[in-house]
Amino acid sequence: MHEFAPNGILLTDENLKVCFCNAWLAKQIGRPEGELLGNGLFEIFPDLEKRGFDRYYREALNGQSRILSHRLHKYLLLMAPAAGAGSYVQMQQSARISPLIEDGRIIGTVTLIEDVTDRVTRENELNSQLEERDRLLASELAARELAEANSRIKDEFLAAVSHEIRAPLNAITGWTQLLVNGGLDETEKSHALDTIQRNVRSQTQIIEDLLDISRIVAGQMRLELKPLDLVESIDRAFEGVLPAARAKKIDLVRSVPERSPFVMGDSGRLQQVLWNLLTNAVKFTPNGGRVEISLREVNDFAELSVSDNGHGISPEFLPFVFDRFRQAEGGSRRRQGGLGLGLSIVKNLVEMHGGVISPESRGEGTGAIFTIMLPLLMAENARSTGIRPELDSNHNHPDIAGCRILIVEDDADSREMLDILLRTYSAETATAGTVAEALDRLSSFRPDVLISDLGLPEVDGYDLIKRIRSLSDEDGGAIPALALTGFASTEEKRRVKSAGFDGHLSKPVDWNELIEAIGTVRRRQKAQ
């Protein structure tokens, strides 16, 4: 039975010399039984001493048994794994070292070795399945918690909307009834009208915020871009917030350079950004505090910063400060009014201007800083005079005259208009209505700039730019390209950039903006 057992059996005498080794073990270690018998165990297997297993055999001679598990020891004797054992380098083993007893006297040791590689493999597979199940369960729980959190945030938002709308309505209704019923003196009438007017403005702002969020989500927010004097924008927002700051005895500070930097932006929307940040700073700064707005140039960017020494932002809430409907305090515990939309709108408007905004706070009670980086207007004369380089009456423009421009537009009227406009400014043009025509014109006309609509038939503008960018530079693969689209969302702009276009223009196209964009991509290409 020992000789043909499906596991290893090894016997030694009391001097730890091998006196029996069954066929299974001899086969696994690759040494005939006769070569082992009579030799010292540690002479045959010196690795046992190196790994400290010799003490287990000495303990066995003293009457102690030891079980070696595969989890801790992996193997007792070095053996090759069985075929199909996966990536194991050695056979996974479970071993038992026990005293060999005859008539109550210890006469040696007995070692039993079992190949547990298959069991270990099955256990590992089962553990992997359990881990995958736990991962899926955790993912499911996280998704459920997120859905519950979003539902809770929406509920809090709807409650906030109800409160923010009803509170002004209550004041408007109450004072209106008092005015209708009469009995108010002139001072009270004046106060009533001021209160009604203030609450109407509050409701108007709520409605505007809701509409702005709706436009942003739908990708319908449009900007009227033109060169802007940032100091003028700061001054307007500053003056709008000054009364509220004075009412709380807040020190409102403005720090701007002597020479005003210019950016390409929407005056009203940029002023909305600054006003919102300043209003928030004043709202969350206690009486007698300090709020500062500063402006400086950093490389090719204008850095706008609004800082305060007010309530600050907790580290837990800081990553979510721009999320829609999120407020640090929810429900009836809110110390400040509002819908939690202002900062979300600010972030979207800044990104639509090609900029970034970042919040900073060391925690509650330490104040907060919001920093905006906007790209400076590249034209030096616009920066120094505040006047955009408009096209002169003779339709001369150094970046357009002689420029070879390929226009890709499937709408015949739009294509003709673009063609006539650009030729009016001395550009050389070629037109195409499909991607196939555009690729043909690219090789024959060899344009300096590509202007392409995205909504082309069958194969769209994204496919066109992908095919062009796969060409060599000599074949036009590096041509500056501008995309025309009816969508103006931030996500659309990111997609246009990542697809390979150098610029993005929304329909209907502002012609001055188009000329400026062509000039920008040409100057950028020449500078490379």
Topology, element by element:
Blueprint: E1 8-13, E2 18-21, H1 23-29, H2 33-36, H3 41-44, H4 47-50, H5 54-61, E3 66-68, H6 70-73, E4 93-102, E5 105-115, H7 117-181, H8 186-218, E6 226-229, H9 230-247, E7 251-255, E8 262-265, H10 267-283, E9 290-298, E10 301-308, H11 342-352, E11 356-360, E12 368-375, H12 380-385, E13 404-408, H13 412-424, E14 428-432, H14 435-445, E15 449-453, H15 461-469, E16 481-485, H16 490-499, E17 503-506, H17 511-527
Parallel strand pairs: 7-9, 13-14, 13-15, 15-16, 16-17
Antiparallel strand pairs: 1-2, 1-5, 3-4, 4-5, 6-8, 9-10, 10-12, 11-12
Structure description:
This protein has 528 residues and is of the alpha/beta class. The chain folds into 4 domains: 8-115, PAS domain (Beta-Lactamase, 2-Layer Sandwich); 137-218, Signal transduction histidine kinase, dimerisation/phosphotransfer (DHp) domain (Helix Hairpins); 226-382, Heat Shock Protein 90 (2-Layer Sandwich); 393-527, Response regulator (Rossmann fold, 3-Layer(aba) Sandwich), CATH 3.40.50.2300. It is 46% helix and 19% strand. It contains 17 helices and 17 strands. The strands form 4 sheets. It has a 5-stranded antiparallel β-sheet. Strands 7-9-10-12-11 form a 5-stranded mixed β-sheet, with helices on one face. Strand 1 (8-13) and strand 2 form a beta hairpin. Helix 8 packs across helix 11, helix 9 (230-247) packs parallel to helix 10 and helix 10 (267-283) packs antiparallel against helix 11 (342-352). It starts with 7 loop residues before the first strand and ends with a helix.
